[in-house]
Design brief:
517 residues, alpha+beta, 5-stranded antiparallel sheet, 5-stranded mixed sheet, 12 helices
Length: 517
C-alpha cells in the first residue's frame, strides 16, 4: 500500500484546537435562543425545540491567516444526535487530509496465461482496492489499456479478488429493508457503476410507445417492454410500474459464479404516464459477480475486443503464480469527494472510510479500523468528540451520532487545512447544484445586485425522523458562518422550512429584532 503521513500540528494550531475543545472562544457568550422565524416554523410544523440542536459560529481570519471562530448561536449544541448524511463531512475531510486530494484507487489486472498473436490464452484476475467510481467511462479506459498490451481476444475466464475488504462489510444489510434501492448498495472492492442498473423511460418522439434504454451496458441483457402508455400526469409514476429481472428460462442466479450462458430479461409492465418526458428507474437487481462480469464483457466488446467464449465470473484470490498485466488508476479523491458531498453518495462514503482502514492498517479493511483511523486523526488535530459514533461513515445509519457543536469544530478545522478549498467547493451550493440545487432560490435572488454574491454551501442529511444541515454561509456583508443543525423527531420531514429560515437568517447576518425563548 502507498504510504501517507499525517502532518504534526503547529504550536499555534495546537493552542487553537485546545480552545476549540473548550467551546471555540470562551470570551464570547453565544445566544441561547432560537431566531423567531425558525421557532415559528418549528411550532407550525409541530417539531418541539428539544428535538432540535443548532450551532452557529462566525469564522474570522486575522492577519496571521489562521481562522478562528466566535459563537453566535448555541441551542443544545453539545447533545449527540443522529446526523444522517452530514456525517459524510467527517469522512471526506479526514480522507482528503490523510490521503491527499490527488490520491487514486488502483485496480490491478493479473493473468495466469500468455499473449500470443493478439490472443490472451489464460484467465484474467481483477483485484480491487475499493475504487468508488469505477464507472463505464473509466472501464473503457481500462479496456484501451488492455488492448495496448496487444490483446484483441481473450480465451479464458474472469476471476474477482475482493480480499481488500473483510467479508462482513460487503454483506447487504439495510436499515429500511429496501435492498433493491441504489442508496443501499453495500461496499465492494470491485464496485462497478454502483452495481446499479439505471433504466431511462420516456414516450417515443416518433410514435405512441415507450422507449426504454439502460446503463451501464450489459453483455447479456435484453428488455421486455410490456408497458402501456396512459394519459396521466407524471406524479407518482413509479407506483404503476412492475419490474422483474430473471435469466431467460427461469430462476435468478444467486450463486458464487456469474451465469452468462443465457440472457437476462428485464421485464417492464404496467402503466406509464404520457406526461413523463424522461425519468430514471434505478435498481440493484444483480449479484456483484454477475453485474461485474456482464459489465466487463460488454465494455470489452464495445472496445472491439472478442471472447473465445462468454466469460463466467467467479470469486477467487489472485494466484501467487499470476503476473501483473496492468495497474489501472481511477479518478482522484478530490473529484470523488465532490460526488460524495454534493450528491450524498452513500456507498462512495463507505468505501472512503474503508480506504482509510486499508491504507493505514492493511487488509482486510473493516469499518472499525476506519473509525480508529479517523479518531486518531481527530486527536492529532487536537479535537476530542465524546459521544461520536461512526458505524459506516455515510450517515445511512440509526446508530451514528455526533453533536452540532462538534461538526462546527470540524468546519472550523477545515478552514485551516491545506485541503480547505477542495473541501469547501465539494459542498452543495444552494440554488445551483447537488442536494441544495432547488433550495433558497428566492432568498438568493435578493442579492443578485451585489458585486460579491452571498452563498450557501451546505451538506444535507435526511432519514426517516431525521433532517440535518451542516456547512458554511457567506452572508451579504461578507461574513463567513459555520452552521450545523439537527432535527431528530417523527415530524423531522417537515423541518426543511425551519432549516431554510435559519440559513436565510444568516444570509442577512442574523438580524434579531425579536427571538423566541
Amino acid at each position: 500500500m502507498q504510504e501517507h503521513y499525517w502532518r504534526p500540528p503547529t504550536l499555534f494550531m495546537a493552542i487553537l484546537w485546545t480552545g476549540l475543545g473548550l467551546g471555540l472562544c470562551a470570551n464570547i457568550s453565544p445566544a441561547a435562543t432560537i431566531p423567531q422565524a425558525v421557532a415559528t416554523s418549528l411550532e407550525r410544523n409541530q417539531i418541539p425545540k428539544d428535538a432540535v440542536s443548532i450551532s452557529v459560529v462566525e469564522i474570522e481570519t486575522p492577519r496571521d491567516g489562521k481562522a478562528v471562530a466566535k459563537n453566535i448561536l448555541d441551542w443544545r449544541s453539545n447533545d449527540p444526535m443522529n446526523p444522517a448524511s452530514t456525517m459524510k463531512l467527517i469522512t471526506t475531510l479526514s480522507g482528503l487530509d490523510i490521503l491527499g486530494p490527488q490520491y487514486r484507487w488502483r485496480t490491478n489486472i493479473y493473468t495466469d496465461g500468455v499473449i500470443r498473436q493478439g490472443v490472451l490464452k489464460g484467465n484474467l484476475y481483477l483485484q480491487g482496492t475499493g475504487d468508488p467510481k469505477l464507472v463505464p467511462e473509466e472501464l473503457a479506459k481500462l479496456m484501451k489499456a488492455l488492448q495496448g498490451l496487444g490483446i484483441q481476444k481473450i480465451d479464458g475466464n474472469l476471476f474477482f479478488d475482493r480480499s481488500a475488504y473483510a467479508p462482513s462489510v460487503m454483506e447487504h444489510n439495510t436499515i429500511d429493508g429496501e435492498s433493491l434501492r441504489a442508496y443501499n448498495v453495500p461496499p465492494d472492492p470491485l464496485l462497478y457503476a454502483f452495481r446499479t442498473l439505471s433504466f431511462q423511460l420516456g414516450k417515443s418522439r416518433t410514435a405512441d410507445f415507450i422507449d426504454i434504454s439502460y446503463s451501464p451496458a450489459m453483455s447479456q441483457l435484453q428488455i421486455d417492454n410490456q408497458m402501456q402508455l396512459v394519459n396521466r400526469p407524471c406524479d407518482n409514476w413509479k407506483s404503476n410500474i412492475r419490474f422483474n429481472l430473471d435469466p431467460e428460462g427461469g430462476g435468478a442466479n444467486t450463486g458464487n459464479a456469474s451465469k452468462t450462458d443465457q440472457f437476462l430479461i428485464a421485464q417492464f409492465s404496467g402503466a406509464f404516464p404520457s406526461a413523463c418526458k424522461g425519468v430514471y428507474y434505478n435498481v440493484v437487481a444483480l449479484d456483484a459477480n454477475t453485474f461485474l462480469t456482464q459489465g466487463f464483457a460488454a465494455a470489452w466488446e464495445q472496445a472491439g475486443g472478442t471472447w473465445a467464449q462468454a466469460p463466467i465470473g467467479k470469486s477467487a484470490s489472485v494466484p501467487w503464480s499470476a503476473r501483473n498485466l496492468l495497474q489501472f488508476e481511477g479518478i482522484n479523491l478530490s473529484d470523488d469527494v465532490q460526488d460524495i458531498n454534493k450528491y450524498s453518495n452513500n456507498v462512495m462514503a463507505r468505501q472512503l472510510l474503508l480506504t482509510l482502514a486499508l491504507e493505514k492498517m492493511g487488509k482486510p479493511a473493516t469499518t472499525a479500523n476506519g473509525e480508529l483511523v479517523i479518531q486518531t486523526w481527530l486527536k492529532q488535530m487536537g479535537l476530542d468528540f465524546p459521544g461520536m459514533v461512526i458505524e459506516n461513515g455515510s450517515g445511512l445509519s440509526r446508530n451514528e451520532a455526533i453533536s452540532a457543536g462538534q461538526l462546527n469544530q470540524l468546519l472550523l478545522l477545515a478552514r485551516n487545512l491545506p485541503v480547505s478549498e477542495v473541501f469547501y467547493n465539494s459542498l452543495p451550493l444552494a440554488g445551483t447544484d447537488g442536494t441544495m440545487r432547488n433550495r433558497l432560490m428566492t432568498q438568493l435572488r435578493k442579492f443578485l445586485h451585489l458585486k460579491k454574491k452571498p452563498e450557501v454551501r451546505i451538506k444535507t442529511g435526511s432519514l426517516a425522523d431525521v433532517r440535518a444541515i451542516s456547512g458554511y454561509v457567506l452572508s451579504k456583508s461578507g461574513k463567513l458562518y459555520a452552521v450545523t443543525s439537527f432535527i431528530n423527531h417523527p415530524n423531522a420531514w417537515r423541518g426543511l422550512e425551519a432549516h431554510d429560515q435559519l440559513l436565510s437568517w444568516l444570509l442577512e447576518d442574523g438580524p434579531e429584532p425579536k427571538q423566541a425563548r
